[in-house]
Amino acid sequence: MKRTIAISLLAAGMTLGGAAMAEAVVGQPAPAFSGTDSTGKPVSLSQFKGKYVVMEWVNPECPFVKKHYDGGNMPGVQKYAAGKGVVWLAVSTSADGDRAAKATAVGDWLKAKGAAPTATIMDTGGAIGRAYGARTTPHMYLIDPSGKLVYAGAIDSKPTANPADIKTATNYVVQAIDDSLAGKPLAQAVTKPYGCSVKYG
Amino acid sequence: MNARTTVTISRSPFSLRACLNAVALLALACALLLPARWAQAAASAVTGHARAELLVHAPQGVTAGAEVWLGLRLQHQPGWHTYWRNAGDSGLPTTLAWTLPPGFEAGEIAWPTPKQLPLGPLMNYGYEGELLLPVRLRMPADFKGGPLPVKLRADWLICEEACLPEFAELDTVLTAAPVSTHAALFARAQAALPVTPPGIQATARIDANALVIEVSGLPASYRGKPLQLFPENGGVIDHPAPLAQQWQGDGLVLRAPLSAQRSDSPARMDAVITADHAAPGIRIGFAMAGPWPLSGANPAPAPAPAGATQAAPDASDPSWLPVLAFAFLGGALLNLMPCVFPVLSLKVLGFAQHGGERRRIVAGGFAYTAGVIASFLLLAGLLLLLRASGEGLGWGFQLQSPPFVAALALLFTLIGLNLAGLFEFRSLLPSSLASARARNPVADDFLTGVLAVAIASPCTAPFMGAALGAALSWPAPQALSVFAALGAGMAAPYLAASLFPAVARALPRPGPWMVRFKTFMAFPMFATVVWLLWVLGQQAGIDAVAGLLGLLLAAAFGLWLLAAPARSALGRWLGIGAACLVFGATAAWSWPALRQAPAAVAATSDARWQAWSPQAVQEARQAGRPVFVDFTAAWCVTCQYNKRTTLADPGLLRDFQARNVVLLRADWTRRDPVITQALSELGRSGVPVYALYRSGAAQPQLLSELPSVDEVQQALGAP
Questions:
Q1: Which residues of B touch A130 (CB under 8 A)?
Q2: Does residue B371 share a domain with residue B261?
């Protein structure tokens, strides 16, 4: 009978281990996902295990997204991240519809803006957006090499559509990457995102 | 018109009045020698999707001591909206930047009561149509009147599906004479301003990942109406989540789920409540009692103000004591469950063998009781802790993990094989451990209590999941007391038998029949295994079931090998090696199947029922159809009973069809954060839950956990 106690304690331990479940809460494992990118290739979060991953919700028609692309701010942050070995996934969430045309449009626009994401995921139907609780474009997330969500929120500290505010704002994504790579606790782990609503349709 | 305004922008239609105004402006500009650029601004502007106008309301004239209001009037194009001070999930509040002469100051915007603007799964707060944002003007005490130039730069985000930032630079010049041209607009804005009637009091606390606000002193007209909550701080609650509301006497208890990505932990909050979306709303302020749960959010910047106390367990709470009593009773009943009864019945029969050792028996009884209660508290404490850290778990969470279900099935098979006599644990234990057991019989009893809880857990969750889930949403001390009562109830028969020799004497005398009884008890154990296999099949499919059966076979074979008497040490080791090899190989083979994702759509075999999702509910409601949601799980026996009785009733199904009800089934057999979230929004943390959304009603009606056909039909027929 005592042997069974050991087994039941083991089972209880398994519950503990298994309790870390997928839900976009900072400090917990980031929801796993797989989708296709704007060129039709499959992309999943698991293929980037072992690396920091930034997720950026993007919509070329949103003035807040334009604010950060027209002056080159977002592409700059993407290059900064790439230089530190950080994977960058741009995510375009949209209702069901003409996926192919949308993919081309988003892909071409990002290229024209000099953006350099590792991949641009077409979240048609919005499953990834819902799993992460993405509310705005832009809405930014940072996932650590163990797959844990470490940052969720705004791109920077000035919630306006005015490009002039970028200079004086704190870029939360750069800050989160720097703090993480330095092994420091994040100065801001969750902020309120600002921007247009994600077009769940 | 004493506030001479300028209307000379290119987009405004040319008119006589514009001409006159232009003349007036020229005269004024000359008189004041104002810079020429003033002439280019105006008191109104047409931007892409709105018309903006700077208005003045000064019925007593513009002098010190008089009440002077400025205001930005926005006339939105149809379908377009701008935002409240908390824009909700997206959007930005409108901002006003004033340029005034030294000594003058414009106050904060007196925000009119906003409207909810749902957009897909998101929620915004704002305004459509005609809007006036009034601002009080403060003047130096010695101001005697005179031309007063006022400039405003207004920025707003205006959205339909698309969003556009727009702005206007407006100006006007005030003179001392009274102006009340737009008295009606200012009066309407004033009437839409949230009010705080005397006697309103609000307190708030965090409970199970929700902001719980208790408000007293609300007007009677708020009763029975669907209420909306607009927090002024946008970083705390989950804006689109349904607001649970409950009246307790004169008080209202609102329960708003916290945002999974909460970005703020304020010590105080302000919010506006509306009834049926009607303006003016009621503005309440409250301090947060107790600490914020630790989550990804920044720690609370300031501790809760002194005097704010944690909502203490209140023994006078009408529902608490009965729940304790029922928990005790339920615990006692657990002893009769097929998974627990065999083990404990044998334990109790053991008394008869101990005969005269009274002290040993009494000590053992208490040790067992302590073991049971401690295990329940540990399990409940663990669950509370996980929930506080943001895990979407409910009671029964243990059974949502296929590997855990498999481990339980293995455990029950082992106990069953032991009862059936395939092997004796004694023959497997190293002699040192066996003698340790003999030396510490009391510790042994404590561990038996722990084991009893472990094997009882698959029985507590299915039968008492919903009740225990509800208890978990109480403050921690109260919740834990319920679990302690459950444990006390479970241990009570055993404790009674050890305390009162009469009880033990009433037990049958030991004899050869005990061996038969023990073997017989193996069958309920195996029956439990059959049920667990079915649950696993629902969760992970037929491959997982085959994998688990293989694992059980390997375990039985391994035990048989180990229990066989070995003639030499070599033979013994060979036996152990072979047993480990067989078991390890089978485990490796079956593990992927157990870990596998569930079969895409689990068990929606019934064409009448569709899989639940928040979108499905929303779409059906947008189409004007009522919705009935069955929150269920394969491991929940109450759910399965209801599914086969009430919910399968032909009359009720006809009724559903006649009323064009959309039937949705949310299967919580596996962990599902979306369902967990939906349950917590409904104020529950376990299944079964039956929710009926009548067309037109803002809030769903929750039915009982064992609904009768009558109850469902009455709910359907209610107005």
A1: 121, 674
A2: no
Per-residue tokens: B608: 């009448």
Which of B192, B218, B250 marks a domain boundary? Answer: B192
Give chain B's domain count: 4
Q: Which of B261, B347, B386, B532 to mutate to test the interface with A (most CBs of A within 10 A)?
A: B261
> Which chain A residues in 12-51 lie under 8 Å from chain B, judged by CB atoms?
12, 14-16, 18-19, 21-28
Q: Does residue B313 form part of some domain?
A: no
DSSP string, B57-80: EBTT-SSTTS-EEEEEEEEEPTT-
Q: Which residue has the tokens 């703020």?
A: B264
Report if residue B106 sits inside a domain: yes
Domains present along chain A, CATH in parentheses = 21-197 (3.40.30.10)
Higher pLDDT, A92 or B265: A92
Same domain? For B399 and B480 the reply is: yes
Chosen for mutation from B80, B81, B83, B90 (greatest number of chain A CBs closer than 10 Å) is B90
pLDDT level of residue A91 (50, 70, 90 thresholds): very high
Query: Which residues of chain B neighbour A196 with C-beta distances below 8 Å?
Result: 90-91, 159, 162-163
- Phi then psi for residue B463, to 5 deg, are -90, -30
Task: Check residue A159 and give its pLDDT.
Answer: 92
pTM of the model: 0.52
Its domain, for residue B367, covers 320-404+425-515
Do the chains contact at B382 and A63, CB–CB below 8 Å?
Answer: no
Residues of B in contact with A46 (CB under 8 A): none
Q: Is residue B554 in some structural domain?
A: no
Kindly tell me the sign of the dihedral angle through the C-alpha atoms of A161, A164, A165, A169: positive
Residue with tokens 């009246």: B247
Q: In Å, what is the CA distance from B630 to each residue of B464, B465, B678?
A: 17, 15, 12
ipTM of the shown complex: 0.82
A162 in contact with B, Cβ within 8 Å? yes
